[in-house]
Amino acid sequence: MPPKAPIKIFPGSATRYLAEKISLASGRNIGDINTLKFSDGEFVTSFEETVRGTHVFLIQSTFPPADNLMELLMMIDAAKRASAYKIVAVIPYFGFARQDRKDKPRVSIGAKLVADLLTTAGVDRIITMDLHADQIQGFFNIPVDHLYASYKFLPYIRQLKLDNMIIASPDVGGSKRANTYAKHLEMPMVICHKQRAKPNEIGEMRIIGDVSGKNVVIVDDLVDTAGTLTTAANMMIDQGAISVRAFTTHAVLSGPAYERIDNSHLAELYVTDSIPLLKPSPKIKVLSIADLLADTIEKVYNYQSISSQFLI
């Protein structure tokens, strides 16, 4: 039987901070990779060490700008052309995931396009976390390991030990996620129903359920402009909630997000480090997923089950 192919972990430039944490958690050094940028903004990616015959794990979230996705594609292509044995893309935040269907005529399905681009580039496996839509896994014809931040969030929610705690979904689309949290924690739940005037702008919102006298915990997959989250938190306080906290996996936090969070009734916002924070905020707490990703990488490399990673 031939010897097992060695493993090498390489960071994308946007997610080097997370790759370094994964390196510490796994006890493995990150590989030497270089991205050379030209004056016009074009760039070239090259591995500065051999990857021939190795299991290559590439760590890169694909949040804006689109250069982050392009860099990951070029990393995959470079590894393939350098004769890597297996190429695994670790994408903590899978960008373009909100474009998972045709919600109006003549629009692209961006998530499917990204899946095709990654597959065509030569990736053999995807490891990602809290996709905006679970069906995106089916856009790939290769294995997709879909992890959940609940692995990190549930222990912290329990540690809050708040009386009269209730789980909430900020929209109907996230009700399945909130219901799963509520069942696991044996708590009731409420749902916020919203209608959007246009993307990133709420037209109307109402709360389905009673939050009076409750400590509310909102769970969601991402927070972008924080309009939905802060509107929901303010409405819940107005309707008699004692406090409102939120646990969201991906801290996109674009536009007026930081200002909205700071000025809202939201007590705390817990996020993961799948995306780096643009600036600190006294209300935002970061829970690292580096140990979860490191453990998953080791299990995938050793052909072991990762079912233990799924608390819910």
Q: What keyword list fits this structure?
A:
312 residues; alpha/beta; 7-stranded mixed beta sheet; 5-stranded parallel beta sheet; 14 strands; globular
Total of DSSP H or I helical runs spanning 4+ residues: 8
Helix content: 25-40%
Distance between the termini: 38 Å
Query: Mean pLDDT score, rounded?
Result: 93
Number of strands: 14
- Class computed from helices, strands and strand pairing: alpha/beta
Which band does the percent of strand residues land in? 25-35%
- Please write the string of helix (H) and strand (E) elements: EHEEEHEHEEHEHEEEHEHEEH
Cα radius of gyration in angstroms: 20 Å
**Spans of at least 5 consecutive residues with low confidence:** none
Shape by Cα distribution? globular
State the strand order across the main sheet. 10-9-8-11-12-13-14
Instruction: Let me know the largest β-sheet.
Output: 7 strands, mixed
